[in-house]
Structure prediction request, 99 residues.
Amino acid sequence: MKDKYQVILRPHITEKSTLLREDNKYSFVVSRDATKKDIRRAAEEMFDIKGNIINVHTMQVRGKVKGRMNRYQKGRRPHWKKAIITVTEGTRISVFESI
Prediction:
């Protein structure tokens, strides 16, 4: 198993993910080769919520083509993977509480 800090890279904070917190769902940017089991184990260790994770959903997000890098080439943002972790009622993840 990879290190927990190599699996979960950072929280993914948007308007939609902020609204999902009301349903006890938290969104993270994760490593592209991480599995659902890896993400579950890393979240349980990082946030001390062992046994409180109900579900882990993952999705591959395609990078967007943005503007021009120079006169002839277009730039591209990288592909990345997102995980949405659902926790039991009353469980909070401390990373999101200060936001």
User: Anything to note?
Assistant: The first helix runs from residue 4 to 7. The chain is about 25% helix and 35% strand.
